[in-house]
Every structure is written in C-alpha cells, then in structure tokens.
Amino acid sequence: MFVVMIIGWFIELVSIFLCSKLWDDLIIFDYVSDITIASVW
Q1: What pTM value is reported for the model?
Q2: Distance between CA atoms of 15 and 7, rounded to whole angstroms?
C-alpha cells in the first residue's frame, strides 16, 4: 500500500514537471513570436 502511494506521488510529480516544462516552452514561444512580430512591424 505504501509503495502504491509512493508511485502515485512520483507520477504526480512527473506530470507536474512535464506540464510546467510545456508551459515554459509555450511562454518562450509566445515571447519569441511577439519579438518576431515586433521586428516585422
């Protein structure tokens, strides 16, 4: 039972990490696209 709890906690941690990583990539992409649009204009 304790092992299942640890595995569940680990999966939750990994999913949070992946989501934040994807979110950071999206923010960086948005920032770059804003710079590109600004330089074009």
Answers
A1: 0.48
A2: 12
